[in-house]
Design goal:
Largest sheet: none
Order of helices and strands: HHHHH
Shape: elongated
CATH superfamily: Hemerythrin-like
Strand content: under 5%
Number of domains: 1
Mean pLDDT: 92
Helix content: over 70%
CATH architecture: Up-down Bundle
Number of helices: 5
CATH class: Mainly Alpha
Length: 137
């Protein structure tokens, strides 16, 4: 079962690489969700969770570098939001490694699915016109 349904047009932020990154993040969240639904293999779940954490960090770094390069006005707000999210993901990962509770993990996955889409629609979309004016696509 898919938790987060991707829509290329709805979530298009105007930068092809970022669209691909966002889709990959959604795919990892969906994989984590389906794995938790079908398996109690903690190691497998943690491998996927770690992949989500690492890919999230990678995406945010690439996004922030582009914002700095073009002096995006809301860079600091984006960076702060990214940091809070990564810190939360990291803390949850550590917690689940030592004290695994499936119910809490399901709640977290639901949060992740909601957060990523809300972040794209309400935060990342704000840079769409800015980067378009810079000729970045």
């Amino acid at each position: 079962m898919v938790l987060v349904k991707w829509d290329d047009e709805k979530y298009d932020v105007g930068i092809k690489a970022f669209n691909l990154h966002h889709k990959r993040l959604v795919d990892i969240i969906n994989l984590l969700h389906s794995t938790v639904d079908t398996s109690n293999n903690l190691n497998h779940i943690l491998v996927i969770y770690k992949e989500l954490l690492n890919y999230t960090k990678y995406h945010f770094e690439v996004e922030e570098k582009l914002m700095l390069k073009y002096k995006y006005d809301n860079y600091h707000l984006q960076k702060l939001e990214h940091k809070k999210f990564v810190d939360s993901l990291t803390e949850s990962y550590k917690k689940f490694k030592t004290d695994f509770y499936i119910v809490e993990l399901i709640d977290l996955i639901d949060f992740l699915g909601d957060w990523i889409l809300e972040h794209i629609l309400n935060t990342d979309m704000n840079y769409k016109d800015f980067f378009k004016k810079q000729g970045v696509s």
